[in-house]
Design brief:
This protein has 139 residues and is an alpha+beta fold. It has a single domain, classed as Phosphorylase Kinase, domain 1 (2-Layer Sandwich), CATH 3.30.200. The protein has 5 helices and 5 strands; from the N terminus they run ααβββαββαα. A 5-stranded antiparallel β-sheet has the order 1-2-3-5-4. The longest helix has 23 residues.
């Protein structure tokens, strides 16, 4: 459940960061975050996500993970990591899709080939000692 006060903080961050009321008007909660509250917003015709959390650790790990992004392993780049009041936040491009665990049985069956391609790409990325060591040191 997304807390209303986090919605307000997200709006304040976006207005301060982008000197615009446009993002605040298009702020939409995204369900499913375990470690952060996430909101989709639009700016200059593009969709982004702002995530709020009590810690920035996961955002820094996501930034390292984004170095492995490829067509087979789409990981959004982190545009900004910062802090506002008592909340850490990260901004990244919005990638459409559904949470894997929320897929129906029929959708899950259609997703298996793409899932296997992603796992193969992840295995190749982890085979690089530099990538694996960078992720481990961020833990």
């Amino acid at each position: 459940m997304i807390k209303p006060e986090l919605n307000t903080i997200a709006q304040l961050i976006l207005m301060r960061s982008y000197q615009s009321c446009e993002p605040a008007g298009t702020l939409t909660p995204i369900k499913g975050g375990e470690w952060s509250a996430a909101y989709k917003f639009s700016l200059d015709g593009h969709s982004f996500v702002i995530r709020l959390s009590h810690t920035s650790e996961n955002f820094h790990r996501d930034k390292i993970s984004a170095e492995w992004s490829s067509p087979a392993l789409p990981i959004p780049q982190i545009i900004k990591i910062d802090r506002y009041q008592n909340q850490h936040y990260a901004i990244s491009p919005f990638f459409p899709g559904e949470a894997f665990e929320m897929l129906s049985v029929d959708d899950l069956g259609q997703t298996i080939p793409d899932f296997l391609s992603m796992m193969t790409a992840l295995q190749k990325a982890l085979a690089s000692s530099r990538a694996f060591c960078a992720l481990c040191s961020a833990w």
